[in-house]
Amino acid sequence: xTEFYITEDFPKSQIEFDKRFANERACYDYLFTINWPDGFxxxxxxxxxxxxxxxxxxxxxxxxxxxxxxxxxxxHDTKKPITYRFRAMWWFTTRKxxxxxxxxxx
Length: 106
What we know:
alpha+beta, 3-stranded antiparallel beta sheet
């Protein structure tokens, strides 16, 4: 089995996780940092200025391209709060004995 190493500042306990991702804003801020670690940069034109519209969609002010923080993730188009998804991923990725998928009704 391949070893998996977390190279970022990953919560080391449930308490740490709960503090770091206590609300939706914290989850979306995390996704923003993952997508644009050096700040927003449009993937199409390279411009760094943006507008934010509903549902955490960023629009480049130059070319007006749209970028969603949850696009191409399992969280895209979910009806449940993002905090539920983050918690489910935490449980699935940190339990050594595994987690029964039936335990989560997302």
